[in-house]
Each structure stands twice: as C-alpha cells, then as structure tokens.
Write a structure and sequence with these properties.
Length: about 450
C-alpha cells in the first residue's frame, strides 16, 4: 500500500483521528478515524485500512466515490472480503503464527554470523591473532544459507498461487457448454447461456473455491473461424488467456466430437493452429459435455468410444505442427501412447451433462484432486517446516539474497572488504522481508563469537 503525496502512513493498529481527503481534488470529505492493520497481521493477511466516518449518506457516497478514483480499487463482491479458502486459511494461520517469519529470521541470522566472521577479519585480522579458518567458516555458513534459500525458491510458486488464486481458463468451440460450466462451478448464473453460438465474446472472470483452493476462473469466447471483428478480438483474447493460465479445461460437445470422429472430419469449428497448440498443452484437461444427448439420440455405427480417455488422446495431435498448418483432419489421428509425456497418462478427461448433472460430481472431485496434485498444495499444507512464499516481493528479496551470497562465495580471502559488502546486501535483502537489519546485530554477533573486549 502506498501513501500518496504528503500523507503520512498511520501508525499500525492504533485508532487515529484523520482528515479524509479526495485524492484528486484535495477537498476534505470528513473528519474521521482510521486504523491501519498492517499485513500480514491482519484479517486477510494483506494491508487493511478501516475508515470510521460519519454516517450521513452524502459522506459515505463521497468517500466511496473518492476510493473508486484510486488505481486498482474496486468494491468487494458480497462476502468477498471475508472469504478465504481452506488452503488460504491454513497458510494465513501459519504466517500469523510466525512460522514463516521464523524461517526468514533464521536465514538472516545465518548471514549475520557469516558477516560477523568477515567483519572480524577486516577489523582485527591483521593486528590481533584471531583463530584460523575464519574465512572458510564464513563461507560454509553462507553456503548453508544459500542452499536453504534455493530450496525455498524451488516451490513452483505455490504460495503465490494460493494467495492470488490458480488461474483456470475454460475454452473450446462455440456452444459446447463453456458458460454452462462456469455457472455450474460458480453455482450461480454468472455467465449468459444461450443456444446461439458465439454468445460469449469477451472474457468473464470470477473467483471461487474449488476443493479448498482459490481459483480465478475465466470463461472465454468460443474458438471458431469468424469474420466478425468483435468476435475475432474475443477469440484472440481467449487464446492469450489459455496460454497464460496455470491450468485450462477444454469443453467439447460429446455428441459432436463423436460424430465428427466417426466421419473423420476432426474438430471443424476451431480450425486454427492455435487450437491445436492449446489442446496439446500439458496443462489442458477435457470435459466432454452434453452426454445426455448421446444417450437419447442413436449415433451412427461404429459404436461410441466408451472410454473418455481414449477420446481425449485421439484429439491430441500426433506430431508437432507447423505454423499455419490447419489440417483439421489430422486431429482424429490417435497418437502412439508411448510418445506422450508421462503427465498425459494420468486421467485428464471427464464426460458430463451440465444440463442433467450427470457425471458432474466425479468431475468436481477428480478436478480438485488434479489441482491439489498439480500445484503441490497437499505438500505445502502439510509441511509445516518450510515457509510459504505468498508474495512475489518476498521471492524477489530471496532471489536478491541468493545472488549476493553467490557473489560472496566467488571472492577469496584477499577481497574481504568486497566480500563483506555482498553479505551485507544479502542480509539487507532478507531484512526487507522480516524487518531491517541493524548495525547492532552485526556488532552483537562479532562480540558474541569472538569475545572481543571482554
Ligand atoms: N442438452 C444439453 N445442452 C446443454 C448442456 N450444457 C449446455 N447446454 C446448452 O448448450 C447451449 C450452449 O451453452 P453455453 O454454455 O452457452 O455454451 P458456450 O460454449 O459458452 O457457448 P458460446 O458462448 O457460444 O461460446 C445452451 O443452450 C445450453 O443450455 C448439456 O449438458 N446438455
């Protein structure tokens, strides 16, 4: 959170009197009270500011309108402020309990102990005889911290995903049931559903809880060839949303796919090289929808593939495609199983009817399981010993500390002054997460480790 212009950041956790001022006009809206709950020790673990204002309608609406002028501000959805998934709640509790802070404090202490050795060499090395191997000791301490940091950074960004939500994109040809899936997952009519293909033209996003994990769901425009300019923009956005998503679901109409397969036409409605790239991504899962229509309408022979997984595999291209290659027919060629990456061998497809609810329970359970496995949430939630990096800012600081420790390790004992500087940078980087490092800390460590002056 930034405090604009001359504004002072209120002292955290203190109810203070303040003037509430319009950010653009500078006009005073009210003489009120403010409490700043500084993250992560706040209800949502983010920085929270509570404004206590006079209850007149005019004051409230002027305050809300002033807030809406601030960049990235928007009113919360009903209940959104207090909504937390189970995963977030556990991470928040762990953070509040100080487990994460303690881990960072340990890193900082490790760097300070190495720095104390190097500082002692600089200050006393030549004049006073201090014990042998001090520099080597500093190096091995720094190496240990470096290894620990490396381990923490190697977490596939799970903490950040848990905090900001796993980005899930729904895509597929028009009229397959993408918006119906979004409404089913959201348990409300969030998207417009009609039998007219091309109803969804832009991306519709909403946040929800899937199996205890936070998910930011995006419904995208149906992928098809079109001359409609607006629809084409929507399709381009859809492609980008899928590419940048952490995971995606391709919704297909089961009867259509089967019919097209039997006629060996492939998926004619999405004839583009992008389409092929999107379905062959390792993080794409398949939902064959409208199973109710298959049961009620007799399909031409040969009989339907009973195994959904076989159907999915038959959609995947068997070899890498060239840009501009749009031979849809190739989509029906089943790839050799052993040519697929191991991840593709796990179940990645479900057959449902979003209209009747048939198969939706298995899909929900299966997909939540996939999310947990894929993003390693089971590990992160059960492993109380490792810190959870929930902010990219913290990751940046850890990365910076890692870089300075690596540079420190490259220096020899002849360059102690430069080497110490690198350790100081590393300690400062960690200090930005836990609270700034002070000169006192280093002096304490020097005097404690070397008994100087006693
Ligand atoms: N019979 C049947 N109809 C379904 C099912 N799911 C969705 N539909 C219908 O299929 C039509 C298209 O559904 P949508 O959810 O709007 O499909 P979409 O993929 O979002 O469509 P676009 O916005 O055109 O891309 C609607 O008339 C739905 O009522 C299903 O399981 N069975």
């Amino acid at each position: 959170m930034t405090w604009v212009g001359k504004l002072r950041e209120p002292t955290p956790w203190k109810l203070q009197r303040c003037r509430i001022v319009h950010p653009e006009s500078g006009e005073t809206i009210d003489d009120g009270l403010v409490v700043h709950f500084k993250g992560p020790k706040s209800f949502t673990s983010e920085d929270v500011v509570e404004l206590h204002i006079h209850s007149g309608r005019a004051v409230i609406s002027a305050t809300l309108s002033a807030l809406s002028k601030l960049p990235t501000f928007r009113p919360a959805e009903p209940g959104e402020f207090t909504r937390q998934t189970e995963g977030q709640r556990r991470v928040a509790v762990r953070a509040a309990e100080g487990a994460t802070k303690q881990k960072f404090d340990e890193l900082r202490a490790g760097i300070i102990s190495a720095l104390a050795k190097v500082e002692a060499l600089i200050d006393f090395g030549e004049g006073e005889e201090i014990e042998e191997g001090v520099y080597e000791d500093a190096k091995s301490r720094a190496q240990k911290v470096l290894d620990t940091i490396q381990g923490y950074l190697n977490d596939h960004r799970r903490g950040e995903l848990l905090r900001s939500g796993i980005r899930l994109a729904i895509f597929g040809p028009p009229n397959a049931g993408k918006s119906s899936l979004l409404n089913f997952l959201a348990q409300r009519e969030a998207a417009i559903v009609t039998p007219i293909p091309g109803t969804t033209r832009d991306i519709l996003e909403l946040s929800l809880d899937l199996g205890g994990l936070p998910v930011v769901l995006a419904d995208t425009a149906g992928l098809r060839k079109t001359e409609d300019v607006v629809e084409r923009i929507g399709i381009e956005r859809a492609r980008k949303a899928v590419e940048s998503a952490d995971i995606s679901i391709c919704v297909l109409s089961f009867p259509e796919v089967v019919q097209q397969q039997q006629q060996r036409n492939g998926l004619d409605s999405a004839a583009s090289s992008h389409w092929r790239e999107l379905i062959s991504r390792d993080n794409t899962f398949f939902l064959f929808n409208k199973s109710d229509l298959v049961d009620s309408s007799p399909m031409p022979s040969p009989p339907l593939p009973s195994d959904v997984e076989t159907l999915r595999l038959s959609l995947l291209p068997s070899e890498p495609r060239q840009e501009g290659d749009i031979a849809d027919r190739d989509l029906t060629i089943a790839p050799k199983l052993d040519a697929l990456p191991p991840a593709a061998m796990t179940v990645k497809a479900w057959k449902v009817s979003l209209a009747t609810g048939d198969g939706t329970e298995e899909f929900l359970e299966g997909f939540a399981e996939v999310l947990r496995k894929r993003f390693g949430m089971d590990d992160i939630l059960s492993d109380a010993a490792s810190p959870v990096i929930t902010r990219s800012r913290h990751r940046d600081h850890l990365q910076s500390a890692k870089m300075h420790l690596e540079t420190f390790l490259e220096y020899g004992p002849d360059d102690v002054v430069f080497a110490a500087e690198e350790l100081r940078y590393a300690a400062n980087a960690i200090g930005k997460v836990t609270g700034a490092i002070g000169v006192e800390d280093i002096l304490d460590a020097v005097f404690r480790d070397f008994c100087i002056g006693k």
